[in-house]
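During the no-cost extension, the postdoctoral fellow (Dr. R.K.) reprocessed legacy sequence entries with the updated structure-token encoder. One reprocessed record is reproduced below for audit purposes.
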Amino acid sequence: MHTGMWSLIAKGSAAANLFISVPFVLRALGPEQFGAWATLVSLVTFTGFLDFGFGNGTMNLVAAAYGRQSREEVANILQESRRALLGVALCLAPIAVLVTLLVPWNHLLGMYVTATEGRIAAAAVLFSVILAIPLNLANRVQLGIGRGDRAFRWQAVGQLVTLAGVVAFAIAHAPLSVLTALAVATPLLASLANTYNLSRDPELAMTTQASSRERSLIRFNIRREGLMFFVLQLAAALAFSADLPLISIFRGASEAGAYAIVQRLFSVIPLALSLIWAPLWPIYRQALAAEDHAWIVRTLRRSLFMAVIFAATGSTILAADFGSIIDLWVHHPIAVSGIMLAGFACWCVMEAAGTAIATFLNAASVMRYQLVTSCVFAALCIVGKVWVVARVGIIWIPWVTVTTYCLANVLPLLWFGKRVFFGVFVRKY
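Re-encoded structure tokens follow.
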């Protein structure tokens, strides 16, 4: 509950940043460049898989070791994870330089600004993504050892500072590159402070002299667990975060901007629910290590039921009062089809149920089943969205997500669910 309270504060700060900054940036840049800004900022989510899943893998391993009361193992896992993530960041840095220099960002984003302006904005996003790879490790470790409140405090600070910076510079009519850099780079200051705070923890700083065999085993487990999460994150990025880049390419930045506003409005529902999933994931893992199966089943059922009720109620309100909410929010009329709004509302409910189950499966390291269903879902989803955006328009995009999710995830769960859960409860963690 303590972690959940701070998670609520952090998500509330993120929601404030998400909603309050939009009208200011829209007025400062205009509809076209706002669409480009929204697309660039969304790339941070799209490229979240570039840590190769090591962050989530580390959290699982840390939570399991903590559940077994093995503090020395936690410290050694943290040390090996830091080395792995720093290596990933150093390998990606030269690639980011080449991508920044060679890709025609102004044409790719469908906006009429100078090539230099688009390149600077893209560089800010790419290098923020790379810096986040080692800096976000502290959040994962703190969640794994039951200190998620500390991570969420710093996240709240980062979001509020980002909001203040973006709004202040938008009022001053700063260019696209400056507003993009503020939106994606400022939260990293909080991550840096959190990383420093974790490094001063005496319990985690004191590693034992592990043998080379033990260190090799830890590295192997981090890579094995991490690479599986990498594929899951990549599939999710392709399925969920490619909407705005696809719209920018096929339909232009103006339509991407309108879609981004609708997407951000409905994102408040998964954002609110994530305050439950973030602390619950490592607690599931600790409970599995302690073999407290009765608590797990009871918690999973309750969280699934509550998530569906909350998402159904919230999405219905957002869809029914969309016009009034937009008038109060951006003070700019947006013509949105009821078909699109119904699709977003339906997807919110399905996403809530799916995330409740996926949180448990991730904690239990049920990877092969999820890898198959997620890859099939991503392939169907991206092909369907490309066809719909290019041939029909943007109003059917959420319905593509709903349909492909039913085919690739709901049906297999109904068929294989009992076998999957039986395998979890007979396994040792």
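The mean pLDDT is 83. The chain has 19 helices and no strands. The remaining legacy entries will be reprocessed before the final report is submitted.
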